[in-house]
Design a protein that fits this description.
Blueprint: E1 5-19, E2 29-42, E3 46-58, E4 63-66, H1 70-74, H2 78-81, E5 85-87, H3 91-99, H4 109-121, H5 127-147, H6 179-187
Antiparallel strand pairs: 1-2, 2-3, 3-4, 4-5
Helix pairs in contact: 3-4, 4-5
Length: 200
């Protein structure tokens, strides 16, 4: 699946900052702010979605998303910079999960798409992981229905031999004879000789 759709990321800048973490609730805790560029590529060659964001990693292990660049966070105090921070959800992963809503009914392509979405959203808890799991299951059923036989084997008792003429049955209705057939039948019907001597 990852052969068809690839995710690549590149770091453009990184700064050491002090933040008030919304996960561990520590103040003035050290963190690393990184400006990242993520690309969603087709066959790892053709990019069709590009996202630029600033990620902040707290010392507690929480991954946060900032609305400001890393150099801005490095020049403000932790109380002022707290307004820019929120829990990180990658827009690439979100695009994969939401795109699966329109691709699950495609037999093979939908399974590939939602499989990649499930693998990317597996580390996220909540609606993204559940939605991608349900869509992947629906895509699996759609793909399986494509390869299942639509009709069962023919019944040998009902199988007819080719070019076999139909035999008349006792319940068959004989159509009435036409007037021409009745005249022809009377013409060629032999008349039995009369017995006895004709009277004068």
């Amino acid at each position: 699946m990852h052969i068809v759709i690839g995710i690549s990321s590149r770091e453009t800048d990184s700064r050491q900052v002090k933040i008030n973490c919304p996960v561990c609730h520590k103040t003035e805790t050290p963190a690393l702010a990184r400006d990242m560029t993520e690309k969603l590529t087709l066959f790892h060659l053709v990019p069709f979605f590009i996202s630029k964001a600033t990620f902040v990693g707290c010392s507690c292990g929480a991954s946060l998303l900032s609305s400001q660049k890393a150099n801005v966070l490095a020049n403000v105090d932790s109380d002022f910079g707290a307004r820019y921070l929120r829990l990180r959800v990658s827009p690439i992963v979100k695009a994969l999960v939401l795109g699966g809503l329109f691709a699950w009914f495609l037999p093979v392509a939908g399974l590939i798409w939602n499989g990649c979405a499930l693998a990317a959203a597996w580390r996220y808890r909540g609606w993204m992981q559940k939605t991608s799991g349900v869509l992947c299951a629906l895509s699996l059923l759609t793909t399986a229905a494509l390869f299942l036989p639509t009709t069962g084997p023919a019944d040998p008792a009902r199988r007819k031999e080719p070019n076999q003429p139909l035999q008349p049955t006792s319940t068959a209705v004989t159509p009435p004879a036409s007037a021409f057939e009745l005249l022809r039948r009377d013409k060629y019907t032999p008349v039995a000789p009369r017995s006895g001597v004709a009277r004068l």
